[in-house]
């Protein structure tokens, strides 16, 4: 890993991260690539996000807004320094390649072939820095008959078979209210970058990390592929439960809320039976084993649903917890933020945009809560040093001065010709 000096925007009260000293250049827009960059920044890397002066990341306009500030952006651009630089110009490409010479990782999420079209493909980057790791995040990967197609999370979830598994049999398969395929691809790209950096420690050479949204969505599908390959079984959507895994479902309580009860192991089912005042269920041949409970899943769900409906949600969870049955509520985000477990672990942390001052956008930018760094590391935890800066190009002068040694006259000339803004 290349050691770089601390950067000017960092706060002093954030513990060093495991990737402290790593420099990352992030190209691309929206969620998958920037999410990989965010995860690297969470762990302490100096992430420099490069946006075209005339085409900033559309993610800046996503999510709920206040005073012109989008909170989706705060979370996905946190811990990043934002630089405006036009890679479609010769001057912009030269600046980018000078930055590459100082970097450990480049993350890009353009359609395959875009970097090559701009004259900054991996062959060029590798000549400048043989140790560079290039993470390429795209819809379908860098090769194959679909590689040139544009890719979005919704289509990736569909083509991978993931969407087919969601919802209820015979109904249109719904999507979760998140860009799940993007986030999965960003996580797999992050994982690939870490593995490539470890390999670089042995070989001294960087490499390409090729992460596809479609393949990330496919990779989490448990045994669907071997099940089909060897038995011809096509797993189907199963609504609120898993087929033949019982009991593991959600049940409506007396006060109209939903509670999840997962007691599909024999020992757990015995505890649930005791909590229900029906210890006989654990020895009933219809329910005594995992296979038997799968065979009688519908009647078992009906029995538990009728019992659960006699309790308010809080009372039901308290009772089941006393008997050490796996259980929990189906929370909204409001209930999540009030949950004592998350708060005891200090999961929610402040995101502050240092580029905003009182009155700049018509409101006083109070810190906004977001989810902190996950997982927690005991020695090099990292943290949220700042939220994503609202203004495009906030750190352009800082980065080019600090890293490349540009003076004010050179910055002014670049700005006048439109290379930076």
UniProtKB/TrEMBL annotation:
<dbReference type="InterPro" id="IPR003673">
    <property type="entry name" value="CoA-Trfase_fam_III"/>
</dbReference>
<dbReference type="InterPro" id="IPR050483">
    <property type="entry name" value="CoA-transferase_III_domain"/>
</dbReference>
<dbReference type="Pfam" id="PF02515">
    <property type="entry name" value="CoA_transf_3"/>
</dbReference>
<dbReference type="InterPro" id="IPR023606">
    <property type="entry name" value="CoA-Trfase_III_dom_1_sf"/>
</dbReference>
<dbReference type="GO" id="GO:0008410">
    <property type="term" value="F:CoA-transferase activity"/>
</dbReference>
<keyword id="KW-0808">Transferase</keyword>
<dbReference type="InterPro" id="IPR044855">
    <property type="entry name" value="CoA-Trfase_III_dom3_sf"/>
</dbReference>
<protein>
    <submittedName>
        <fullName>Formyl-CoA transferase</fullName>
    </submittedName>
</protein>
């Amino acid at each position: 890993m290349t050691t770089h000096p601390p950067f000017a925007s960092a706060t002093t009260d954030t513990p060093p991260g495991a990737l402290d000293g790593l420099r990352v250049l992030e190209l691309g827009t929206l969620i998958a690539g920037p999410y990989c960059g965010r995860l690297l920044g969470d762990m302490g890397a100096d992430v420099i996000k490069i946006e075209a002066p005339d085409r900033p990341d559309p993610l800046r306009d996503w999510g709920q807004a206040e005073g012109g500030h989008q909170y989706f952006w705060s979370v996905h651009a946190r811990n990043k320094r934002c630089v405006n630089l036009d890679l479609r110009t010769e001057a912009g490409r030269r600046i980018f390649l000078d930055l590459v010479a100082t970097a450990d990782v480049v993350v890009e999420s353009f359609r395959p072939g875009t970097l090559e079209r701009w004259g900054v493909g991996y062959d060029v980057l590798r000549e400048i820095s043989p140790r560079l790791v290039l993470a390429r995040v795209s819809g379908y990967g860098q090769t194959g008959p679909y590689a040139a197609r544009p890719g979005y999370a919704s289509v990736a979830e569909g083509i991978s078979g993931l969407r087919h598994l969601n919802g209820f049999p015979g109904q249109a398969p719904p999507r979760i209210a998140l860009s799940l395929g993007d986030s999965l691809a960003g996580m797999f790209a992050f994982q690939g970058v870490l593995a490539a950096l470890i390999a670089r420690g042995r070989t001294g050479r960087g490499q390409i990390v090729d992460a596809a949204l479609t393949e990330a969505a496919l990779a989490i599908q448990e045994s669907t592929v071997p099940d089909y390959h060897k038995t011809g079984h096509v797993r189907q959507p199963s609504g609120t439960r898993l087929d033949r895994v019982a009991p593991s479902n959600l049940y409506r309580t007396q006060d109209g809320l939903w509670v999840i009860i997962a007691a599909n192991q024999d020992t757990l089912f015995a505890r649930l039976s005791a909590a229900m005042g029906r210890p006989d269920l654990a020895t009933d041949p219809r329910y005594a084993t995992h296979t038997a409970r799968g065979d009688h899943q519908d009647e078992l769900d009906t029995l538990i649903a009728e019992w659960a409906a006699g309790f308010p949600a809080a009372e039901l969870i308290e009772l089941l917890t006393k008997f050490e049955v796996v259980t929990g509520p189906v929370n909204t985000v409001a209930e999540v933020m009030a949950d004592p477990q998350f708060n005891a672990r200090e999961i929610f942390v402040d995101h502050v945009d240092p580029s905003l001052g009182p009155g700049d956008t018509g409101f006083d930018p109070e810190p906004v809560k977001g989810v902190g760094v996950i997982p927690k590391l005991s020695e090099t935890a990292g943290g949220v040093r700042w939220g994503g800066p609202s203004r495009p190009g906030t750190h352009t002068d800082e980065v080019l001065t600090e890293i490349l040694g540009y003076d004010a006259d050179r910055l002014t000339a670049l700005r006048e010709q439109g290379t930076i803004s």
